[in-house]
Amino acid sequence: MRSLVQPGSQAEMVGRLFLAVIVVIALPALPFGTYLIYPFVILTTWFHEMGHGLTAVLFGQDFERLVIYANGSGVAESLVANDASRLTHAAIAAGGPLAPSLAGAVLIVASAHARIWRPALWLTAGAIVLSVAIYVRSTVGVIVLPLVAALLGLIAWRAPAGFVRFTLQFLGVLGAMSMLRDFDYLFTERTVIAGRAMLSDTGQIEAALGLPHWVWAGLILGVSAVMVAASLRYALDERRLRAAPGRLPRNVVRFRRPPR
């Protein structure tokens, strides 16, 4: 039976991304689905907290440690200089909620290029392992994150190319959709993590720059949506897909007709 969808076409890319969305949404509803999705919930927390920590490093501050709790919440602890500007404080606070969408957008873009499917997974796995060695200081993080890295490494090493691409798309969609999971948190000024009351990320931005926290929440959601939309537009661009040469099976020989 002839396939109605041409391999490498826009329709195929849309179908694969849509399947990734369905898996992300439906997996928790399946029997034992909560347990299956749990390592990837921890992964999105890792995206978030690493966003805080790496933004601190980018602004010349010290990223000290990352703690992830069993309920999926987490804290990135950075040593910020007393004379650090308000912009520095605000940027560190914003780096967390923006990081999962940024990571998701990068992975979606990577899924559009066959030559970097496996390197992208290896790089993600390596970044996880390196962060655990340097920054992660909690039992949940030390146990779960290396297991996720090992799974990604195994997929990059042994899985068929199509499954490697789907894994990138799944992780990209997971990161992109985390902004919806964090919707209530973004619009909350104060929160409680591990029994400690503290300002939320948007509450910290409000304290640093003024304007209500919900304004910053809306801005973060808007920037996240733009990043994800841009990555989808790139990955699904029909002109780029049409220009990409299809790879013929190994047993097919291509002949070129000489010019007249």
Automatic annotation (TrEMBL):
Keywords (alphabetical) are: Membrane, Transmembrane, Transmembrane helix
InterPro entries in alphabetical order = Peptidase_M50B-like
By what name is this protein known? M50 family peptidase
Q: Which residues lie in coiled coils?
A: none
Membrane spanning stretches = 17-38, 87-109, 116-134, 140-157, 162-180, 214-236
The answer to whether the entry has keyword Amino-acid biosynthesis is: no
Signal sequence: where? none
The highest taxon in the source lineage is Bacteria
